[in-house]
Write a structure and sequence with these properties.
Layout lengths: L16 E3 L4 E2 L4 H28 L1 E3 L5 E3 L3 H8 L2 H17 L1
Antiparallel strand pairs: 1-2, 3-4
């Protein structure tokens, strides 16, 4: 059977079953499948690291005292329209007026 990844003709014992019941084989040989999963794991780890650094860079501290992550304008607008923000801003303005 020919592997669709490396395009080499290999015996059936180098392929594993995708479905044991119906005896359906994977199109990739076992070696190519292992390489594919290793690459996929590396990609996932890198994607998680990029997400975490992006999260740290896009953290915004609002004047109401809340710290939140803002990837898009939508996140900022959602925070500004939240009940928590409005309540904290009212308390912040009241405290500021009492000090004067």
């Amino acid at each position: 059977m020919e592997c669709t990844k490396c395009h080499k003709v290999k015996p059936f014992d180098e392929f594993s079953y995708k479905n044991d019941k119906e005896k359906i084989y994977y199109m990739y040989c076992d070696m190519c499948k292992i390489k594919y999963y290793c690459e996929e794991e590396k990609y996932k780890e890198r994607a998680i690291q990029e997400y975490n650094t992006r999260k740290l860079l896009n953290t915004i501290k609002c004047e109401c005292g809340i710290e939140y992550v803002c990837f898009r304008d939508f996140h900022m607008l959602r925070h500004l329209n939240s009940k928590k923000h409005k309540k904290n801003i009212i308390h912040y303005n009241i405290d500021e007026n009492e000090e004067k």
